[in-house]
Amino acid sequence: MTSVNTSLLQKSDGSAELLLGSTKVIASVTGPIEPKARQELPNQASLEILIRPAVGLATTREKLLEDKLRSLLQSIIVRFKYPRQLIQVVVQFLISDSKRTETDLVDYTSNDLNAAINCCYYALIDAGIALKASFVSLSIAVKNGNLTVNPTVYELAQSDSHHVICFNIEKGKANKILLLESQGDIKEDELFAMISKAVEEAEKVHHEQQRKFVKEKVENDYVWKQ
Amino acid sequence: MELYSPEGLRIDGRRWNEIRNFECRINTHPNSSDGSSYIEQGNTKVICVVQGPMEPALRSQANSNEATLEVNLSVANFSTTERKKRSKSEKRMVQLKTTLERTFQQSVMCNLYPRTLIRIDLHVLSQDGGMLAACTNAMTLALIDAGVSMYDYVAAMTAGLHDQTPLLDMNGLEENDMSTLTIGVIGKSEKLSLLMLEDKIPLDRLESVLAIAIAGSHKIRDLMDSEVRRHGNIRSSKLAS
Amino acid sequence: MSRNTEISTNERTYFIEALKCGLRLDSRRFDEIREPQISLSKTEFGYVELDWGLTKLAVRVSAQIGKPYEDRPFEGLFQINCEISSMAWAHFDNSKNSNEEILIARIIEKAIRRSNSLDLEALCIIAGEKVWNITVDLNFLNFDGNFVDVGCFGAMLALHHFKKPDISIVNGGEDIIVHDIDERQPVPLSILHVPICLTYSFYNPGNKESNLKGEDDDEIYLLDANLIEEQVREGSIVVTLNKNRELIQLSKNGGIPISANVLLDLSFKSMKIVDELTELIKKVISKHEKERYEELNLKMLEVGADR
């Protein structure tokens, strides 16, 4: 269900295309590069984050997503390593299923946010940007106490609550929550049950997909050393 | 409305190969600018004012190899019968401005004025077709008046196609109903420095339209040249006395 | 790293010297375009990915129901969005539109929208009340020259690929029902002609003054320039044609002048490529249609077998 392609854009330092369920997203990372004077920070890297929707021009919806993504990436990129530099992250949605039909008024952005975060991980690794730790994001729908990971937009619409949760992963263990966006009604014990289930899932994704990807990438990048 | 009668007369009484009344004046604003001109092409009226070459206001405008041209195009609200507020950031305006800047970047000997800025302000007072052409002609004259070195005149003209007949120098009514080609020609050559065609014409008719447009541009060049010479003679006679 | 990756003098000289010997750096002929690689989405109508050399583009066509302009009650709405982000190249600024971007957007828009290549009257549902609003989003992913030609081709391809949901009018023209794609076969757009943009870049290896005055004609013309070729070029012209031998647009925004004979010559020569590219769109779309129908039939058979 998940497929990742990286290094497909020649003009960016790192890029990744992620297909997650029926959401397709492409992210590019350029940096560290020279910032404009007003972006420059004296002792750390500044981030420029741009999210572009699949249809139409960017609106406040994309600005909100940008803000969430920025708060996450700010805490995970080793910014003091690149003082007075700029890291540009552009996320372009290609296929998005945030609405059930095109005329639907309710817009479920959690699958979009989830795909954007995961795609950024691969693009940042591809660009060789220093990260403090790995991170895995999950989109989860809860209905009558049952959890669905990576729900479709229909499942989102029918759920009691849905969440995007992103974990900090160190030494293969999910040890910190970096981001939790929840919508809908949820009881405290359900929330904790959801989080502990999500920890398992996140570690699984990390071991089965991210580690494999990084290993292959390092092997390919250093093929000249053998 | 008949744009071209069977007798071969156009809506304003011209034949197919006649240009409209062309009036031009050079050095119209001698106190407020380094070079200025005023052009009437039929009812299209344009003032052009040139400042420079001068020190650029922004560091980004200083190019160590050649002069930077900055064109500001403003179209008056009263330039058409419909009073409409026109913003400078409109895509069409930006395109015209960029086109003019890039055209003259080549025809002006920019390499003689490194690290300077030449600012050109165009004011369209009245529109009746051929606005881009009139702006180009006004810019050429104003730059000559400012004493900026150029390789040759850039003379511009429009031509259109009515059915099978090419028509020279389109007025506003004709321009709305027919496809119009605007060209800018360098001096008396057949070299085109500017080209703009926005509506369909059959490929096989391009040659005839292009041919009369070039002939028209050459005529405009001669008219501009005689105005420059007239002004030059007045100046030199003042110097002599 | 700086954003403005200007190319070095050595690289420039090498490139010009190669041109003088009749060679391009990627060993194409002067009038040869890069081979487009097309992938049409099987599930989403109007989603196309296009690789043109290293230039990469994703196009998305979408339809919504809107209200027509008051002065044009019978015409549908049609817009082309073309914003270039720094994903394509760090040189493009995200916060403001450069003149370059506006020029690209204007030329594509003139080629497609202004030339009426989409039949707007066919988009009318109820006159003065409801019409289809068709939007084309051009998302440039990677820049290796020639956004105009690629953008125009991609947009036309996606418009051919797109299908809007079928509708029926009920209650004597008061309400409309939009049928789901699974319920009724969606309908394609009515396209009147296919404009193809071709950009020629020129180089003048000789003296600038004698070239400007038309004393010598030894400029070199390259079709479909890539990024290096675009950075070195001294001028360019966009010729937009369709296969009915209609000239839709000529746009030369500055640069070194081009002689009238060369212009005519280039326009006539372009017809061959225009025919090829138009044929390519037709071929790819009809192949895709066929595959889709075969798949559909297969599915229907399976349902039958289950019973």
Description of the structure:
The complex is a heterotrimer of chains A (226), B (241) and C (307). With 226 residues, chain A is an alpha+beta fold. Helix content of chain A is 33%, strand content 34%. Chain A has one domain: GHMP Kinase, N-terminal domain (Ribosomal Protein S5, domain 2), CATH 3.30.230. Chain A is built from four helices and nine strands; from the N terminus they run E-E-E-E-H-E-H-E-E-H-E-E-H. The mean pLDDT of chain A is 91. Chain B has one domain (22-240): Ribosomal Protein S5, domain 2 (2-Layer Sandwich). Chain B has four helices and ten strands. Chain B has helices spanning 91-107, 131-145, 172-177, 206-240; strands at residues 22-26, 35-41, 44-54, 68-75, 117-126, 154-162, 165-168, 180-186, 191-197, 201-202. A five-stranded mixed sheet of chain B has the order 1-2-3-5-4, with helices on one face. A four-stranded antiparallel sheet of chain B has the order 7-6-8-9, sandwiched between helices. Chain B starts with 21 loop residues before the first strand and ends with a helix. By secondary structure, chain C is of the alpha+beta class. In chain C, helix 2 (99-114) packs parallel to helix 3 and helix 3 (147-161) packs parallel to helix 6. Chain C is elongated. The B-C interface holds B 91-92, 94-95, 97-99, 101-107, 151-152, 181, 186-187, 189-204, 206-207, 210-211, 214 and C 99, 102-103, 105-106, 110, 114-115, 209, 212-214, 234-235, 237, 241, 245-261, 263-264, 267-268, 271.
Quick overview of this protein structure:
The complex is a heterotrimer of chains A (226), B (241) and C (307). With 241 residues, chain B is an alpha+beta fold.
Features:
heterotrimer, A: 226 residues, alpha+beta, Ribosomal Protein S5, domain 2, five-stranded mixed beta sheet, four-stranded antiparallel beta sheet, 4 helices, C: 307 residues, six-stranded mixed beta sheet, 15 strands, 33% helix, elongated, disordered C terminus
Mean pLDDT over the full residue set of chain B: 92
What Rg of chain A, in angstroms, do the CA atoms define?
18 Å
Q: Write down the domain tally of chain A.
A: 1
- Secondary-structure element series of chain A: EEEEHEHEEHEEH
